[in-house]
Amino acid sequence: MADLSGIDPDRVRALEEAENARFVAERPRSMTLQAQAHRSMPRGVPMAWMDDLYDHPPVWVDRGTGPTFTDVDGWTYLDMYVADMSAFCGHAPEPVVEAVARRIGLGNQFLLPTEDAIVVAEHLAARYGLPKWQFTLSATQANTEVIRLARELTGRSIVLLFDAKYHGEGDATLVIEQDGAVVPESRGLSPGIADQARIVPFNDTAALEAALAPGDVALVLAEPAMTNAGFLLPERGFHDVLRRASRDAGTLLAIDETHTLVCAYGGLGRDWGLEPDFLTLGKAVAAGVPLAMYGMRDEIASLIAPPEEARTVSGAFVDEVATGGTLFGNALSMAAGRAALLDVLTEAAFERTAALGAQLAAGLRTAIASAGLRWSVAQYGGHASYFFAATPPADGAGSRAADDPGLRALVRVFMANRGVWESGWWLGPTVSVAHEPAHVDRYLEVFREFVAEVT
Ligand SMILES: Cc1ncc(COP(=O)(O)O)c(C=O)c1O
Q1: What residue's CA is closest to ligand 1, atom 7?
Q2: pLDDT tens figures, 209-258
Q3: Between 20 and 30 A from 235 (CA), which of 118, 284, 392, 416?
Q4: CA 96, CA 343: separation in Å to the nearest integer?
Q5: Burial of 303 (0-12, 13-18, 19+ CB in 10 A)
Q6: pTM greater than 0.70
Q7: What pLDDT band is residue 5 in, cutting at 50, 70 and 90?
């Protein structure tokens, strides 16, 4: 019998078993490396997500060029996952390769600034509309500092988040709502973090206003469109309410464009005229070379200025908000960021990826309709997501209700076995700066083959 997605779950299970077996059998070198890696690394990978992301084992990678990468068994994949958005510049983009090679030869780490930092910060200010910037090595770290600054500025501790969010692995955001209560999202976290967070559904302006009403929220941390449970677009007027209600409540607003920076040249914030107090960027911003940053208004930046009368405890300044790390702002990341922002992530590149994204979404919709399936597609710029439900959900609960983990696992292993690297988790396919129309056509061809196989 077919379930909500319209697909027979027994067929999905049988196909997944067969496709997983094929995947393993055809990749002996990857399987050998993983077995060896188990001896020195938990789960046989350097970072557990690499094993978490897929139902099948990860492949071990040899190299990547443009829109493709090749594993150690010699299989080449058309990359539609683009490393969870971080490879949106394509693999080994020439300007970044040259800048990184040049910089490493000149020395990469001094714990002192290089001129590239000024170029990058000035470019970010012009492009994203906030005047001051600080740099970290991951978006997690950027969001952690943003939360700290907001708490200091407002004298409040609560952070308001949207259900089904992901903003990195900082403790403050690793919470979920369960049976009406906020609880830690995973093990190893202090139960106390749950008292510092409030969670509301995306697009629910009444719940948002009610959560802000007590006047105890330091910061709303939000993606402009949510990307970690499918692609949830804001309803008309949602961002207006978010900005007005947060201002009225004396709450700061951080917009996290770590993922959505791939959707438009100045991010969705610029396209939609958002006015955040903080803006977080990361992942693709330096073509996947570790670099992230947050922009802020001038008044906020003054908190990072040297304290007038510094108080020290055991040699550490205690009047400042704690920010920074030894490798943050390093010369290599800055050189990569400069090349990526100025020479790869150009306005022309975003015009092309938006056209490819439209091609992708149209092709998905046609394939779905031709197969008589009641699935739907959300897309903006080069990013799209398909849902196993007739209309794209508006919030996390809708997305979870429409989800079919078995079917999702099947589509990605089916595609991998045919040379297409589909996204992990719920992200949905993304075209990179290096993709061409023929790559989108190839993806759609395999998608159609998949749909024909399961219907
Ligand atoms: C919206 C958003 N913010 C922040 C992060 C954290 O990024 P990183 O893993 O680079 O710290 C992620 C990661 O997926 C994300 O999706």
Answers
A1: 139
A2: 999 999 999 999 999 999 999 999 999 999 999 999 999 999 999 999 99
A3: 284
A4: 8
A5: middle
A6: yes
A7: confident
pLDDT class of 407 with cuts at 50, 70, 90: very high
pLDDT of 385 > 60? The answer is: yes
- What single letter denotes the amino acid at residue 26? E
CA of 257 to the centre of ligand 1 (A): 9
Closest-CA residue, ligand 1 atom 6, reads: 168
Residue 280 alpha carbon to ligand 1 centre in Å: 10
Ligand 1 atom 3: residue of nearest CA: 167
Protein residue with least CA distance to atom 2, ligand 1: 167
Cα dihedral 109, 115, 118, 121 sign: negative
Residue 451: its pLDDT value, please? 96
Q: Look at residue 84 and tell me whether its pLDDT is greater than 90.
A: yes
168: Cβ below 6 Å to ligand 1?
A: yes
Distance 87 CA to ligand 1 centre (A): 13
Task: For ligand 1, say whether the CB of 139 is within 6 Å of any of its atoms.
Answer: yes
Q: How many Å lie between the centroid of ligand 1 and the Cα of residue 29?
A: 30
Ligand 1 center from residue 141 Cα (angstroms): 9
- Give 293-337 pLDDT, tens digit per residue: 999 999 888 888 776 655 666 666 667 788 999 999 999 999 999
Q: Which residue in 143, 149, 152, 201 sits closest to 171, CA to CA?
A: 143
Query: Measured from the CA of 165, which atom of ligand 1 is nearest?
Result: 1
Which residues is 246 bridged to in the sheet? none
User: Is residue 290 in contact with ligand 1, taking CB distance under 6 Å?
Assistant: no
pLDDT of residue 408: 94
Please tell me the predicted confidence (pLDDT) of residue 288. Answer: 98
